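Field log, afternoon session.

UNIT: design team B
ACTIVITY: writing a sequence onto a fixed backbone
BACKBONE:
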């Protein structure tokens, strides 16, 4: 699946949620994605992850600082 197709699917989901007053569903989805990312970042940085870190900082840590 291409990036454009993925973005189109996400846009369709967002529009459907807004039009059908499914803001709670959309909020829960975003919360879950953020929570999952945070858990993965904490695991991959051996507990050193800070929520203020950018994604690039996480990648740099994993690439250069973890052993």
């Amino acid at each position: 699946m291409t990036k454009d197709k993925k973005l189109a699917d996400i846009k369709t989901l967002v529009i459907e949620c807004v039009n059908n007053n499914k803001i709670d569903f959309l909020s829960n989805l975003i919360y879950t994605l953020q929570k999952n990312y945070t858990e993965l970042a904490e695991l991959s940085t051996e507990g050193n992850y800070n929520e203020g870190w950018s994604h690039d900082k996480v990648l740099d840590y994993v690439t250069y600082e973890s052993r």
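LOG NOTE: Helices lie at 3-19, 23-44, 55-65.
NEXT ACTIVITY: expression trials, pending approval
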